[in-house]
Amino acid sequence: MSDPSGQTPKGPTTLTPDQVELLYYGAARDGQLELLAEFLRQGADPNRPDARGFPPIILASYNGQAEAVALLLKSGAAVDARDGKGATALAGVAFKDEAEIARQLIAAGADVDAPNNMGRTPLMFATMFGRLAMIDLLLEAGADPTLTDAEGKSALDLTAGQSDPSIFEKLQRAAAARNEG
């Protein structure tokens, strides 16, 4: 406990730079809007990744923090910032099935076909995890179901392990429409 001058029985209350960083990235991850806004007002870089390679927008997106995502975008966060594996926030929310945040990111100009380091796109992640509504959202936003990853597999190929045949049918129709157009 400290007094108003910042003193404790053991001396001044200060945080190390590492502790400040933990608070900043934690605020993004946990949706602590007031704290996050204060960090950004004080000049925190909305694009600087944490020690594990995750930019704040990915931390907020992956953890379902729509308001924090909006604040970060408003503060200049790159909508297609990538983590250490090359994945974008949109890929994370496609896997997690966070439709509201996916819409935010797409409205802010996210590349719906941005591949990670293995060539996997947000549509491929939505497909692998059976996220039907997310598949629809991404296809409506222009995602290309014919793109292939580093193993030569498309989103259509990735439906092989799915128990829901509607995923295959949906992607097959989208691929055919793209090939006709």
Any key phrases for this structure?
repeat, Ankyrin repeat domain-containing protein, mainly alpha, 181 residues, elongated, 2 strands, disordered N terminus
The overall average pLDDT, rounded, is 91
SSE string: EEHHHHHHHHH
What structural category characterises the helix and strand content?
Answer: mainly alpha
- Read across the widest sheet, the strand sequence of neighbours is 1-2
Total helices: the number is 9
Radius of gyration: 20 Å
Provide the helix percentage. Answer: 40-55%
What are the segments in which pLDDT stays under 50 over at least 5 consecutive residues? 1-8
Question: How far apart, in Å, are the first and last alpha carbons?
Answer: 67 Å
Strand content: under 5%
Q: Biggest β-sheet, characterized?
A: 2 strands, antiparallel
The dominant shape is elongated
Number of strands: 2
Task: Give an overview in words.
- The chain is mainly alpha-helical.
- Helices cover 49% and strands 2% of the residues.
- The chain has helices spanning 17-30, 33-41, 56-62, 66-74, 89-96, 99-107, 122-128, 132-140, 165-180; strands at residues 7-8, 11-12.
- A hairpin with a 2-residue loop joins β1 (7-8) and β2 (11-12).
- α1 (17-30) runs parallel beside α3 and α5 (89-96) runs antiparallel to α6 (99-107).
- The longest helix has 16 residues, at 165-180.
- The N and C termini lie far apart (67 Å).
